[in-house]
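Example S7 (structure tokens).
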């Protein structure tokens, strides 16, 4: 991933070397990533964490060591073309009430199609299900310019998300208990509850491989998505119980669907997610 995607990031910010710093946070890697960074990317600053803290706490610990006006959270499987960063920073500079923005995110594998994780800006359904302009559930659209307008959104994708560092730190960053998945949606919901706005700026575009660290069909991903989605609703919705009651039945309907389609491990993941949600919500601040 580093060898495939990091060169594009280095190249795309080369003209901004005086104002932009490129940092790789090593989340307790057990391969030779650090040696690759040292030998092949000597100009990149590395923050080395002592273990894998997950997507959420890994970012928190890394960003705690960063002093800058903005931070871009960028997955390790994202290719950045020239000129991608400037529209994001310009929008943030000219919209002081905006806490975070994302670019248009296309698929690295199918360059003309949106990518699942973020597409052209994220929204939440009344029942708390995330979806995007350009993606609903597992179906993604071809990008034909239909979402080239700048819009306010409910959430911005953690695959590529430019945030005000001060707001990120004031709100406690990503929720470490989530470990990974939907942690950026939770943070965005907290930002909106605090009065901030969010936007998708499609004049910026990146290409995301998606599923680079955990495939979309992995039962672990299913577990994290179901558990964290419930926690997020409980934390951030003012009166969550009506929605959570409906979700109780819908989640068990999803369990039956997985069983019928032969995905026993995914069905068990949903059941375990609901059990762990009930345990974790007792320690969760609303």
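Recovered sequence:
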């Amino acid at each position: 991933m580093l060898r495939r995607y990091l060169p594009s990031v280095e190249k795309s910010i080369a003209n901004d070397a005086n104002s932009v710093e490129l940092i790789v946070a090593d989340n307790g890697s057990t391969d030779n990533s650090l040696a690759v960074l040292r030998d092949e990317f000597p100009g990149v600053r590395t923050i080395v964490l002592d273990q894998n803290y997950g997507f959420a706490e890994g970012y928190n610990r890394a960003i705690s060591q960063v002093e800058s006006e903005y931070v871009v959270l960028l997955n390790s499987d994202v290719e950045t073309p020239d000129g991608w960063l400037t529209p994001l920073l310009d929008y943030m500079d000219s919209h002081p009430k905006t806490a975070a923005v994302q670019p248009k995110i296309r698929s690295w594998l199918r360059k003309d199609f949106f990518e699942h994780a973020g597409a052209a800006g994220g929204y939440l359904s009344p029942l708390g299900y995330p979806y995007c302009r350009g993606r609903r559930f597992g179906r993604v659209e071809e990008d034909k310019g239909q979402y080239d307008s700048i819009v306010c959104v409910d959430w911005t994708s953690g695959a590529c998300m430019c945030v005000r560092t001060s707001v990120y730190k004031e709100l406690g960053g990503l929720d470490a208990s989530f470990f990974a998945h939907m942690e950026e949606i939770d943070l965005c919901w907290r930002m909106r509850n605090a009065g901030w706005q969010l936007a998708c700026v499609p004049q910026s575009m990146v290409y995301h491989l998606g599923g680079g660290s955990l495939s979309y069909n992995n039962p672990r991903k299913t577990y994290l998505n179901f558990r964290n989605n419930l926690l997020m609703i409980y934390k951030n919705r003012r009166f969550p119980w009506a929605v959570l009651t409906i979700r109780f039945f819908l989640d068990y309907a999803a369990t039956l669907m997985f069983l019928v389609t032969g995905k026993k491990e995914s069905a068990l993941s949903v059941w375990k997610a609901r059990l762990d949600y009930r345990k974790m919500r007792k320690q969760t601040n609303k």
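Notes on this example. The first helix runs from residue 2 to 12.
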